[in-house]
Design brief:
- By secondary structure, this protein is of the alpha/beta class.
- The protein has helices at 5-33, 53-62, 73-81, 143-157, 192-205; strands at 41-45, 86-94, 98-105, 108-112, 117-119, 124-125, 135-137, 164-169, 175-179, 184-188, 216-218, 225-228, 237-240.
- It has a ten-stranded mixed beta sheet, covered by helices on one side. Strands 1-3-2 form a three-stranded mixed beta sheet, with helices on one face.
- Helix 4 runs parallel beside helix 5.
- 21% of the residues are buried.
């Protein structure tokens, strides 16, 4: 081999290429990790109502680590998502030293029992709120179903002038609604919106005029409804046909 000049030239070229590659790698490694390329500017974007500048500043100062090149985008995104009202955060670099972070907040729709909130996407999140929100009650995994149904039930009740302050779905899929005037509305498992709409019509036409305190209205009857009035001196339950 040592007498083969062509092979020796090939070996020398290969060694030179390897040395050049190692030099480029070392230079690139130094460039990427060099403190000469810090993140100097952080820009926060998004319609923020609940997330405060103090919270964002704390995350920026205590959770972000690395240079412009080495900063971990996924970890940075996760750091901002730790904030209670942050639903999502998108992070992107902009040369030479800027970081742009777009923050999406949760929009609270209701309270989830006594533990946390439900947003308009049907997602549970743990945050404090002083808003006057209806309460949703259901089994684990039913959050989205209840969140989807709530606006429809509210719309169905709108003609009555009443609103739902609590909506509950049992493990068997039966719906119960507590109204703003403290009446309990039993809607059963089927045709929930139609039954709520039917109640609204009867409320404006008949029920609101009754001179008794109404405890609950049961709309599960196909051709009528039952009304529980504790002050009524007749039968315990007053059944009415339209």
């Amino acid at each position: 081999m040592w007498d083969n000049h062509q092979a020796l030239r090939g070996l020398a070229n290969a060694l030179r290429l390897a040395a050049l590659a190692m030099l480029l790698y070392a230079g690139g490694f130094w460039l990427v990790h060099s403190p000469l390329f810090p993140v100097r500017s952080i820009y926060i974007q998004g319609a923020l109502k609940r997330v405060t500048p103090v919270q964002l500043k704390y995350i920026a100062e205590h959770e972000l680590a690395g240079t412009f090149f080495t900063l971990d985008i996924d970890k940075t995104r996760a750091a901002f998502q730790k904030l209670p009202w942050v639903r999502d955060a998108q992070v992107r670099r902009r040369w030479p030293d800027a970081l742009f972070i777009t923050v999406e907040e949760h929009v609270a729709l209701a309270r989830w029992g006594e533990n946390g909130l439900i947003d308009t996407n049907g997602e549970w999140f743990d945050a404090a709120s002083d808003q006057n929100l209806p309460v949703l009650i259901g089994s684990a995994g039913s959050e989205k179903t209840l969140a989807t149904a709530l606006p429809k039930i509210q719309q169905a009740l709108s003609r009555s002038g009443l609103s739902a302050v609590q909506v509950e779905m049992s493990a068997r899929g039966a719906w119960r609604v507590e109204l703003s005037n403290e009446i309990r509305l039993e809607l059963g498992r089927d045709d929930v919106e139609a039954r709520a709409r039917r109640f609204a019509e009867y409320w404006k036409g008949n029920l609101a005029a009754l001179p008794y305190k109404i405890e609950y209205v049961d709309m599960r009857y196909p051709n009528g409804f039952a009304v529980r009035m504790p002050d009524y001196k007749g039968t315990p339950a007053h059944k009415t046909k339209p």
